[in-house]
Amino acid sequence: MKRFFTTIFLGVAAMIFASQSAQAQNVQLYYDTGRGCATSTVEMFKPDSFGSTFLFADFDYAPKAFGAYWEIARELNFWQQSKVNWLSVHVEYNGGLNTSAGSFNNAWLAGLTYSGHSKDYSKTWSVSAMYKLIPGTVNTLGEKQVHNFQITGVWGLNFFKGWLTFSGFIDFWRECRAWQDTEYILVTEPQLWLNLNRIKGWDKVNLSVGGEVEFSNNFVDRGFHVMPAVGLKWTFK
């Protein structure tokens, strides 16, 4: 039964994001050297007059799809012309499935985001402080502990005249898990990309080569782990 619902989830999610791929900011494909599997990512960021929407979905393959995870976040900012346009209200959902681990705990987040950018938008950053509701959380005593928190930082930096992009995120949150002796989890994934559209005559080839390194503590397993991945990224413009 678990595999049946996993298959349904993967199929529906794949159709949703395939139908939106023409509007997606980028699509990424990685080979994870630490886990020995491939991961595809569809990512979209869309600002509007009321704030912005960000979403991404990851699918893991080895060689068939065995896991999926996605997040969707909305920044609400109705005061973009005011002096406090750097502050927005943040709401978010994330969750997923894995054929061996089962369903991940659904998480609902709400809080505030501070964001900024350079004049030419070559440098962007944001920090969010959020209340995190995880209905499936149970502490080591078997008691529900659904009320948690998360702090997230996101950055993007283009340099060397646009040849290189350094981007990523860092998450720190509390979530009890039966197999862990700590409640606190840290994950960060810095990425470095070489943008091939800077090559003369390749201005329409929006392909980047590079990869990321995942640094985590008490995320999938106990303790600190480093997992590098090499990848390709196509950016839609």
Task: Describe the SSE topology.
Blueprint: H1 2-19, E1 26-32, E2 37-48, E3 51-61, E4 65-76, E5 87-98, E6 102-103, E7 107-117, E8 123-133, E9 147-159, E10 164-174, E11 184-188, E12 191-195, E13 207-217, E14 224-235
Antiparallel strand pairs: 1-2, 1-14, 2-3, 3-4, 4-5, 5-6, 5-7, 7-8, 8-9, 9-10, 10-11, 10-12, 11-13, 12-13, 13-14
Task: Please give a structural write-up.
The protein is mainly beta and 237 residues long. The chain has one helix and 14 strands; from the N terminus they run αββββββββββββββ. Strands 1, 2, 3, 4, 5, 6, 7, 8, 9, 10, 11, 12, 13 and 14 form a 14-stranded antiparallel beta sheet that branches. It is 8% helix and 57% strand. A hairpin with a 6-residue loop joins β13 and β14. The protein has one domain: Beta Barrel (Porin), CATH 2.40.160.40. The relative contact order is 0.13.
Task: Quickly list its features.
237 residues, mainly beta, Porin, 14-stranded antiparallel β-sheet, 14 strands, 8% helix, globular
Provide a quick synopsis of the model:
The chain is mainly beta. Helix content is 8%, strand content 57%.
List low-pLDDT spans.
Answer: 1-22
Class derived from helix and strand content: mainly beta
Helix/strand order, N-terminal first: HEEEEEEEEEEEEEE
Terminal CA distance: 41 Å
Instruction: Specify the CATH homologous superfamily.
Output: monomeric porin ompg
**Proportion in β-strands:** over 45%
Class, according to the CATH hierarchy? Answer: Mainly Beta
Q: Which fold name corresponds to the CATH topology?
A: Porin
Q: Count of DSSP helices? A: 1
User: What is the makeup of the main sheet?
Assistant: 14 strands, antiparallel
How many β-strands, per DSSP? 14
Mean pLDDT: 87
What's the number of domains? 1
Radius of gyration, whole Å: 19 Å
